[in-house]
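Hey, can you fold this one?
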Amino acid sequence: MKIVGIGGFPGDVLSDLRFNGFMKGWEKVMKDHPGVSTKKLETKYGEWKPDKALAPIRDVATANPDLKIVYSMSDVMQGGIEQGLQQAGIWGDGVIVAGYDGGMNVVKEMVDNPTGPMQATASNQPWDQGVEAVKMAVAAYNGDTKACPKKEVFIKTTVVTPENAKDYYKPSDTYVRAND
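Sure. Predicted structure:
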C-alpha cells in the first residue's frame, strides 16, 4: 500500500511534525494488520497552497497509479490535491485522502460524499491555541514556572470522518471548532 504526504515546504516544522505524527499513528494501527505491506513515498510539497499542490500530487499519482493513501498536512491544499488526483485518473479509484486543519470545505466533502476519497481531517484549534498562549504569557509575566513545567502544552484535536461530519458541518465557519 503506497502512502504519500504533501506538506508546505521541505524542512518546515509543521510539515515534519504533522507527517511524523500521521506515520506514527499509521504504524501503530498497521501492527494489527501484519499482512499489509506499506511503502512510504517521498513527501511532496505544495507551499500550503492548492495551486502549488496540484502538480506534485498529480506527478506522484501519475508515476504511482496504485497510490492508496494521501495525507495532506493542510486542508487548504485539498482543491489542488483533488484536481491532481483527478488528472492522474485515480480520484475515486480506491485512493483514500486524509487531512489536517478541519477545513469546512473538507467536512462538506465528507457530508456530500461519505464514500468518496476524503475520509478524515483532524482539527487545528487556533482558538484554543490562542487561549493557551495568553495563559502562558500571563504565567511568564508573573514568574510562574509551574504553569508549564514540561515546556509544552498539547491542544486536543477533533477528528472528523464521514460518520460524524454532519455534526461538525457549519457553513458559516471556516474550520471545525472542537468545543462546539
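Helices lie at 13-30, 50-63, 78-87, 104-112, 126-141, 165-168. Let me know if you want another pass with a different chain boundary.
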